[in-house]
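User: Fold both of these, please.

Assistant: Here is the first one.
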Amino acid sequence: MADNRSEEAYVEGTRFYKQNPLRGATRIAVRIAVGIVVVAAFLAWAVIDVGARKAYKEARDVRRALRAVGTEYYSGLTSIYDPASPDGLADGASEMIEQVSTRDGEVILYAWDDTYNVPMQFEYRKGLYRVVYIDSGNTSEVAAGVRGDFHVYYSLELFHFEAE
């Protein structure tokens, strides 16, 4: 009688295969690369966040300095705000703000309330950070220049072209 069975013996249970060592090394390399990318992204976020918080704190200090210097200019019957100036500040105001505050960035004053002697809108630039302050517009004496929003921006320079 003819038997149609194969000559291989059937063994019940687990079959073991020889694993390719290159496949194991590739898995380890991919895991290490993904780990490095995740850690690098977290560190970049942390560095940007710390810088943004520092710029925000300096912008708050600049707002206080603007009010103080504005009061000094007001006592001299002049205004700190000069719309004809590129930075919006009167002559000598930038130096006075630098002395009063702890900032080392650039201040651009966009709007000033002469009635309450407070900044309505200004921009503080430091490195790659830009902090824009916009007052809430509340014109009561208590809330004038105190309530507003700070917007912190981070920018990267992608290209730099020189004019010919």
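And the second sequence with its predicted structure:
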Amino acid sequence: MTSITFLASSRPFILPKEIEEYNAQTKFEVEKDYMTFSLEEVNPFWRKQIFDLFSMPYLYEVEGAGNRLFLLYLEKYMEEGDVFELYHLPNQHTFKKYIEEAKENSNFIEVNSGSFIYRDASGSYQFNSKTWIEELSHRKYITHRCITRFVKYRKGQTNFK
């Protein structure tokens, strides 16, 4: 069973030099520091399969969306007005089933990195602005049940629905 995670973006997604340098490391002090966050444009096969799942035009296959390098990107490099959508297929071999379920599912997850709010079908949670990344790391944001949307808007601005 091979899983795959997709990321759609409102603009071309460029890894910052800080993350590229971390990815290039070969020695780590402790094993838990070994991680990577990388992405590449989806190949034509997957583009055809997933295109209508997302509302953003730039589609990528992403590795490491569940680790702190991705969270670092959200914290330091996500810009005002950015929108990212994340979707995880736990098994590529049964992708049609998962994609159909995600399309039919009315659940959602939205993370606003501008106002530090996590929303899902059961309600909203206000993160502490100083510890929001740590708090988010303990919440579910990678799933096959729905698309997770990351936005960056400040309080008072319109959120995506």
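The chain has one domain: 8-151.
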